[in-house]
Structure to design on (321 residues):
C-alpha cells in the first residue's frame, strides 16, 4: 500500500501497480493501437494512390503520430487515466495526490512513452519501474502521476473466530478492568488475521498476547487451553459484558401476556387475578312422564319458588318428546 496525501491533507492508501500488470496493459494497448494503425494505413493507401511519393510519406508519418501517439493521449484524457489495457487489468493513472489526470499529464506520459516504450522496446520503462519504489516509469516521474490498482482482492477481515462451546462462561468472573485498549486492539487484530500468518509466528504471537492478558487480569491461562482459543474466549466475554451494559437496562418491554393467577409478570409485579366467568345453568330436561303429559295436553307442574339456592330460573324451552 502507498500513502498519498491530497491537497486537503487527507491520506489515501492506494496500491501501486507493479511491472507485470502494467506490461500486460501496455501490450494490450499496443495491440489495439497497431490494429487501428494498420486499418487506417490501408484506407489511406487505397484512397491516396494517385498522390506522389512525398505526399504519401507525409501522410504515413502523420498517421503514425496521430494514431500511436495522439490516440493513447486522447484516450487517457477522456477516460481519466483508463485506457483499454488498463481497464482490462483493473488499473488507472492518477496524480501524485490521488486526483484524476488532465490533458497535460497524459501528454507528458505519451511523449516520453514514445521514447522509453516504442523506441527502446520497453527496456527503459522496465528498468525505471524496477528502480522506482512505486513502480513508476520515466513518463510517470515527469508527469507527476502514478498507476494504481482499482480492483483489490477481497480478504476476510474483522471476523473474530468464536471460542469452543466448552469454554462458554468460564471467564465470567475474570477482572478485565485493568486491560488497556491498546492490548484489546492488538488481540483483535491478531484474531482477525491469524489465518494469514505462518503457524509458528502465529503461535508465538498468541503466547505473548495471552501472557500479557493474563498479567493484566491477574489470572493465569488455564491448563490445556491453546493461547489463541484463550484470547478468543476472553474477547467474547468482554463483548458480552459490553452488550449487557449497553442494552441490559434498556430492554424493550413487550405487550402484557396472559399470566396465571398468583404468578409474576415480566416487570416483576403480581399479575391481576383472572375475572371469573359467570356460571351458565342449563335448563333441565323434562322427565318422560312430564313429556308424556305435555304431549297429551297437560301442563308441566310449576317449580316451587323455594328451589335450591343459587339456581337461576331456566330461560330455554323443553323440546317435545
Amino acid at each position: 500500500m502507498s500513502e498519498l496525501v491530497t491537497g486537503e491533507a487527507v491520506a489515501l492508501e492506494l496500491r501501486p501497480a507493479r511491472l507485470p500488470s502494467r506490461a500486460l496493459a501496455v501490450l494490450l494497448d499496443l495491440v489495439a493501437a497497431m490494429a487501428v494503425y494498420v486499418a487506417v494505413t490501408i484506407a489511406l493507401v487505397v484512397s491516396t494512390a494517385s498522390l506522389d511519393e512525398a505526399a504519401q510519406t507525409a501522410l504515413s508519418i502523420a498517421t503514425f503520430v496521430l494514431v500511436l501517439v495522439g490516440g493513447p493521449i486522447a484516450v487517457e484524457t477522456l477516460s481519466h487515466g483508463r485506457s483499454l489495457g488498463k481497464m482490462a487489468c483493473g488499473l488507472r493513472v492518477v496524480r501524485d495526490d490521488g486526483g484524476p489526470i488532465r490533458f497535460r499529464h497524459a501528454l507528458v506520459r505519451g511523449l516520453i512513452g514514445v521514447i522509453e516504450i516504442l523506441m527502446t522496446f520497453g527496456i527503459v520503462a522496465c528498468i525505471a519501474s524496477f528502480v522506482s519504489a512505486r513502480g513508476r516509469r520515466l513518463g510517470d516521474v515527469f508527469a507527476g502521476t502514478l498507476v494504481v490498482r482499482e480492483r483489490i482482492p477481497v480478504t476476510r477481515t474483522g471476523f473474530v473466530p468464536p471460542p469452543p462451546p466448552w469454554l462458554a462462561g468460564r471467564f465470567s468472573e475474570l477482572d478485565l478492568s485493568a486491560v488497556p485498549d491498546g492490548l484489546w486492539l492488538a488481540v483483535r487484530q491478531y484474531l482477525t488475521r491469524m489465518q494469514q500468518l505462518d503457524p509458528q509466528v502465529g503461535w508465538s504471537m498468541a503466547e505473548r498476547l495471552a501472557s500479557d492478558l493474563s498479567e493484566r487480569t491477574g489470572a493465569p491461562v488455564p491448563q490445556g487451553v491453546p493461547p489463541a482459543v484463550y484470547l478468543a474466549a476472553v474477547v467474547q466475554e468482554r463483548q458480552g459484558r459490553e452488550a449487557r451494559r449497553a442494552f441490559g437496562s434498556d430492554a424493550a418491554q413487550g405487550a402484557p401476556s396472559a399470566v396465571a393467577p398468583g404468578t409474576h409478570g415480566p416487570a416483576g409485579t403480581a399479575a391481576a387475578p383472572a375475572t371469573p366467568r359467570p356460571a351458565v345453568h342449563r335448563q333441565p330436561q323434562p322427565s318422560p312422564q312430564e313429556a308424556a303429559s305435555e304431549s297429551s295436553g297437560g301442563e308441566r307442574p310449576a317449580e316451587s319458588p323455594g328451589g335450591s339456592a343459587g339456581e337461576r330460573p331456566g330461560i330455554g324451552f323443553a323440546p317435545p318428546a
